[in-house]
Amino acid sequence: MNNANRQITLQSTITCPKCGHQSIEEMPTDSCQYFWECPSCGEVLKPKQGDCCIFCSYGDTPCPPVQKEESCC
Questions:
Q1: Which of 21, 26, 55, 25 is nearest to 41 (CA)?
Q2: pLDDT digits (tens, 9 = 90+) for 37-48
Q3: Residue 33: how many CB atoms within 10 A of its CB?
């Protein structure tokens, strides 16, 4: 299947590595999200080295550009 025809998922469940809280978040399609504050413990997450955004580091679904196999941000 051609990448242009692939269904893109726009939600990802982020899991806080500090407290384990999970939150379903809407992913932006026109920018990367570099920071996310856990609503449970207040930990501010940043992407792990080599990842482009918090969804690629802590989410169960990578960001839309990565899903499309395009370069991200």
A1: 21
A2: 999 999 999 999
A3: 21
